[in-house]
Amino acid sequence: MDRFQAMQVFTRVVDANSFSRAADSLGLPRATVTTTIQNLEKLLQVRLLNRSTRRLSLTPDGASYYERCVRILADVEETEASLRHAASSPRGRLRVDVPASIGRQVLLPRLCEFHHRYPDVELVIGMTDRPVDMVADAVDCAIRKGELEDSSLVARRIGLVPCVTCASPEYLQCYGTPRTLDDLSQHYAVNYFLANDKVCPWDFMVDGEPVEIKGNSVVSVNDADAYVACGLQGFGLIQAPRYMVLPHLESGALREVLPQWQPAPMPLSVVYLHNRHLSPKVRAFVDWVVELFSNCPLLTGCSVESECSFAKASAEGARAGGGQTRELEGVF
């Protein structure tokens, strides 16, 4: 039995939590995957997986073996990749996933810059507000909003996005403008709910500490654009990243309220799986994203005009740069 291949099969089964999905991702028959795990258990003389019709789970021995396999495979892959790609530029298919609003307003307007730098990288971009399963969906890296709770991911913080509490003039005319946090009990919120149906409460910084307040609501959504649209239609107060509502604040379609109690800024991170080697194409994308977000006026709450000028200057710089990129210290 090829022990190295057996380790690869075993870790893929654990990551995918399925013999069938592991077989598909490895391009092997399901029977081969099953036989490989059985032979591996016979060789080690321990049970690695508890199997049922609905799910798989690691035994204590299986968990210990999995962690060691992950380290061994990562070391081997990193060593081979460093030699194989030492003199080559990033290339190949790269699948990334980003929140829809960030993809449309920040990433896509600057995508030509990335292409000019790395013309051999084929980008496949998924845009959704729901976090994807990076293993099952074969996502190489993703941009995530908020605090990260998934310990299987390596995260690089790329920014803190300022948020704002606001409402339409029609709503404020009807219900009045809140002057204190206690006034919020007399107001409505447009609720935003997550994949587990958990509703995100209002969030305010008071004396340096976050305070959460649940608001009354007549509508709840799970899409960022729909959330802002409901605020524009007067369904209630919303708390959104400033870059999303900046044009509406400047046009007067939305008005900021309670500016003395700002919402906590929203963390942004670029993430990838801890047990996957950071390939040149992933590193190139992450380096570019870190640079993009650190220099993006829109994400710091500047005007739309400032962002347009910055995007124009960046595009001209990309064309003049001839595909060169600079190293960013401390990216990983």
UniProtKB/TrEMBL annotation:
InterPro entries: LysR-type_TF_proteobact-type (IPR058163), LysR_HTH_N (IPR000847), LysR_subst-bd (IPR005119), WH-like_DNA-bd_sf (IPR036388), WH_DNA-bd_sf (IPR036390). GO terms for molecular function: DNA-binding transcription factor activity; sequence-specific DNA binding. GO terms for biological process: DNA-templated transcription. It holds the Pfam family HTH_1. SUPFAM superfamilies: Periplasmic binding protein-like II, Winged helix' DNA-binding domain. Residues 1-59 form the HTH lysR-type domain. PROSITE patterns: HTH_LYSR. Belongs to the LysR transcriptional regulatory family. This is LysR family transcriptional regulator. It comes from Azoarcus indigens.
